[in-house]
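Incident log, structure service

09:12 report received: a user says their structure output differs between two submissions of the same chain.
09:20 pulled the input from the user's history:
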Amino acid sequence: MENHLLSILLAIPLVGAALILFLPKDKESLIRWTGFVVTIVAFLVSLFVLYKFKPAFPLFQMIDQMLWINTLHTYYAVGIDGISLPLVILTTFLMPLTMISSWKSIKKKVREFTFFMLLLEVGMIGVFISLDMFLFYIFWEFMLIPMYFIIGIWGGEQRIYASLKFFIYTMAGSLLMLVAIIFIGFYATEKLGYFTTLVTHFYTIGPELPVTISRWLFLAFTISFAIKVPLFPFHTWLPDAHVQAPTAGSVILAGVLLKMGTYGMIRFSIPIFPESAKYFAPYVSALAVIGIIYGALVAMVQKDMKKLVAYSSVAHLGFVVLGIFSFTVEGMQGAVLQMVNHGLSTGALFLLVGIVYERTHTREISEYGGIAKITPVFSTLFLIVCLSSIGLPGLNGFIGEFLILLGAFQSAVLGSWAFSIIASSGVIFAAVYLLWMYQRVVFGPVKNEKLLKLKDVTVLEFSIISIIVLFIVWIGVYPTTFLNWSDATVTNYIMKSLRQIGGIVN
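09:34 re-ran on a clean worker, output below:
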């Protein structure tokens, strides 16, 4: 059973989505409960995956592989390691929370919404566990469909524009990756005698490519992933998608979907094209640092809370990219942990913004003020999550950002302290825009009389946010629990990468 555990995990939301279609449309409560139970079962199975996972083993585990398309020598191949495991756990952890948070906010076409959310979970898990490039690409593209409908049907007034922009941006980048996959697959015929898309074969063939070809293919992969991150200047689709998406869509978009881009860089861009990754590392890192500063500065002037949080994602994911291309164990460990941190903190921020939006029907910061006495529990939770996103010591954001900055500071590949020094200013800017937003929303006089009737968080809402806060504090106080998952994998990954590029192994 252990060999098929990941396939079972993948099948659970898929079977659940199929089951939803057979439920009567008017049985909304049954549909909601079915969707929630399916995501809970998937989370429990992912915990069993965690239980079976061997942290000390640095390579892929629980591999389930079978020939899929004989002509293309393409496999259904899935597996997990210390880099993909935290992201799979994050995905299955956030899904039931978003399902239950949308219980009252999604009032129309409940069956369709639940169906698309479960399909989205299939695509996300599939991306993180695929060990065949063709299979990875299918899940990568498949994920676009449910998110397109989630934004386009249940989003805000500009939902059609936002969903089309999201779809076209990602699709355009994906085509570059598809061309690169096909090229390497055909190049493999010269080495192996047959076309193949297995990731392990790509790891062998990629480093042997001629330098010029390798650099073009690296750009094709990395631009595709950069759009998904999104890395500056490919970020323009993100604010529209976040603002127009329903709360559940925003949580999953920020919490999981953006990590697919950074995960792709780790899993494919660097190990397949190590020499090109080394060559472009300073340039990609420069874009990451620009994104950190730019995202923070633009967030400062936002009037809409959701848009402010969206731009903060551009800044925070810039830290992750910087850690990835530092080619250091500390930087990569920080990047993997920060992907989880961002999913928790930003996901919680979107949930909190969604809570007050459902009561007031506005996200304009100027419409708020003085709610600390009216909603003390909400205000306390909001403060903790904001401080987490800032990177306050004792909370999760600090650990990830510290490791990333440490890795970038001592990186021989980047060759300059400037990346780390300039990026560190992003921490200060984060404090400015988040605390300024918090001060204007929570403190001061009550500007809007409607706020006097504002209700504090319900028991259910408190429970959802508190579960996330528990992990925010846990990672901040004792990060070893989570760093141990990826330690052996990351160390082996970095050492192998440094050997391939002729670097110095510290």
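09:41 both user submissions now match this output. Likely a transient worker issue. Closing.
09:42 reviewer note: The chain has 19 helices and two strands. The beta strands are 61-69, 74-80.
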